[in-house]
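Why STAS/SEC14 domain-containing protein? Reviewers of the renewal asked for a concrete example.
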Amino acid sequence: MSKLNISTTVSGDIIVTRLIGKIKTDDVYEWFNGFEQVCQQFISEGRKYKLLVDRKGYIPDHFSVQKTWKEKFFNETILKHSKAIAFLLEEGEILNYLQQSNTKEYVKFFDDYEQSFLWLNEYSR
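Here is what the prediction returned.
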């Protein structure tokens, strides 16, 4: 089992946010507080950002955890200020499905951190 990692860091215009490990609903709230603060800093400065959402090793402890994460992450204010979003997920059926069904050019799904960061770094729109 992977160690709990709930953090958000910034590298240039890229916000790297991690929600990894056996996650409870309270962990999602804790994660979102830090994530939202970083996003709001960009927004208050009138800057857009790119998001790297690392959920590789994410294990929800209950179905309500995923529901809470979706409600928090898919927030209109946060999403409308993002230029691009890379999701880092475990290799497997869900990742394959998301890669194949994705129709948004500013969203990509990866199982490799370096590839996701490189794509975000080079992405412009």
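The CA atoms of residues 25 and 63 lie 10 Å apart. This is the kind of structural detail the renewal will allow us to pursue systematically.
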